[in-house]
Amino acid sequence: MTELESLPNELLIYILKFLDSTDVIKVAQTCKRLLQICQAEILWQHLCQRDFKFCSLRGWSCSSFHEVYGKVLYHYGKFQGFWKLPGNAYGMLVHIKVENGQIVGHVIQPPLSWNVVDPVRLKPLFIITVRDNECVVLCRQGCSAQIKMESEKATFKCETCLGDNKFPHISEQILLAWLEEELESLRGNFDQRMLRHFLQGNVSFLHRIYNLAEQTRYWSSLQLTKVPEPRGFSISPVTPGIFKGTYGSHGLEFVQITLSEDGYTLLGNKLTGDPNVPAGETSLYIDLRQPIRLTTDEQRNIDSLKECYCPYSSSSISV
Question: Whole-prediction pTM value?
Fold first, then answer.
């Protein structure tokens, strides 16, 4: 008997917790005892938590963490996080996470109102779950779909829905159906300012509405890029992350605040955009070497901030 085989099961499981899942599978192929130990539920529960922050079987048809890891997480767990649509002025923000027995992909859209504190709108894109003991990917219409990942890029495609989109441009029926869906989701909370823009024929607003409807039509085929985790440190005045920002008649858009490599500047890169400042462009710079200390009264509202004197500039603060 080798020294490894002489170790108690508890100690072997402890050692196996430091390995990758692929290495655990290789160890399981060495002998019957290690095969049994490598199937221990406590080991796979640890791997699910460590590799994918997955800690509950609630809602899953699988009976064990080992089964969820092998059938779902090993293949699709790495998709979790935020994704963006490159090469488009308006962009798109997608969030993928484990939720209620499935991996869910949502398109995150800002409120149609101009109120930055209003909640975002989640539009279903796909789900990944286990049905009839098999892992399946389903599009928002319930059709069988595919999702693949290579490096920091992902491809989502539903051949069925893609085949139904035979026309190269959006039709009046599609636009009206999309508007009906959006207005129904607001449940009477249609912002008055938004309605005024709509009735006055604001070109930017209508262009945005048209673009969102057209994007919805072509959600059956997407090329996405992973949104990197933001850098930050404890003394930063703004915690890096994804924020909503107001952009005039273009409405609300998503901006990712990140810290520059030298640690002196916070950058705001647009994840969604407009023709003036497209998605992917930097629209905000904050120099951390020149902090402005404001009193509570000076931070009371936007008008108060505009009146503050900036010692590093010949003018007042630009808000």
Answer: 0.77
